[in-house]
Amino acid sequence: MAEARQAGGATPAQARLAELLRQKNQQLEAAAGETQRKAREAERVAHELGLKNEELLNSLAALRLYQLMFENDPSGLVGVAADGSIIQFNSSAIRFFGYDLHKLRLQPIAELSLPGTDVNIAEVFAETMKHGEVGPLDCVQEGRRVRLSCFRLEDIRGQRGAVFRLSEVRE
Asked: Which of 15, 16, 60, 157 has the most CB atoms less than 10 A away?
């Protein structure tokens, strides 16, 4: 017996196959649309990553410039976090303090003293954190005049700290 034909001449099996093909085509079209959407999203993310990479490279260049300026400054520079811990210094600072500051990294500012002077570094730091700036203070250290200033700073994360600047006064 021949299968009964539906209107339009298709058998029920052919009609079912046609319906399955139509559903699969809809699924493929939906998947293609989703793939295109994901491709656009991936392009957007790749563009954003490119911008972030460029921003990072610029930040690294700025950091390197900062490091060169900081380290090559003839003034002694000492960076102190808001909690009073010594976080950074340049090699010129060692000349003023007379001892290896590496041992004092992350130690309280109270551990730091300016030998041969009556300057209380911890008090200068406290005043700076309170008022924003102290100095310049002039003192004599081992026969040379030294000028000390301290400035409160805020980093890009909004965290405060201070930088001590010491320089030899030449007349």
From this structure: 15
